[in-house]
């Protein structure tokens, strides 16, 4: 593929699929602060692999596959830097993003949002402060006048509740 044609193809892919790719990445559990970086990385990988892409195939699905692989790689690197939400939920979302489970990202986000709304307000607030706002568990524990390990245990239970809820809702959507 010629350089000009490659650039035009990439521009078209970005224009048509950027919002969907970003929503999909966020639905995988990637921290909001890193969604743009992974979306950009997705399109860079796509640009390098344009010669492998069959234009008769669904471009959105191809791009989501690339994003899923990048998010899985981030999950493996989670010890070095934290871009993803807590492990169990991120693992579930990445695993369910396999092509054979290709559910639109908006449905995942809807399920996740609904599950968060089902939590008691105090629990939802803790999850938002820790994972959406990135507040450290130690800082939160000091502010709440509790031990950090106690807070981490509560966060773990909340994540497990959300994971179970998302699994149920996703199962209902598949039926």
Give me the secondary-structure topology.
Elements: H1 3-27, H2 35-48, H3 59-76, H4 87-95, H5 105-118, H6 121-132, H7 137-144, H8 148-174
Helix pairs in contact: 1-2, 1-3, 1-5, 2-3, 3-4, 5-8, 6-8, 7-8
Approximate strand percentage: under 5%
Query: How many strands, what sense, and barrel or not for the largest sheet?
Result: none
| Radius of gyration, CA atoms, in whole angstroms | 18 Å
Mean pLDDT over the full residue set: 79
What is the general shape? elongated
Which sequence of SSEs, written as H and E, runs from N to C?
HHHHHHHH
Instruction: Please give the share of residues in helix.
Output: over 70%
| End-to-end separation | 42 Å
- Low-confidence stretches at least 5 residues in length (pLDDT < 50)? 79-85, 98-102
> Which structural class should the secondary elements be placed in?
mainly alpha
For the structure shown, list the relevant keywords.
8 helices
Question: Short summary of the structure?
Answer:
The protein is mostly helical. The protein is 73% helix and 0% strand.
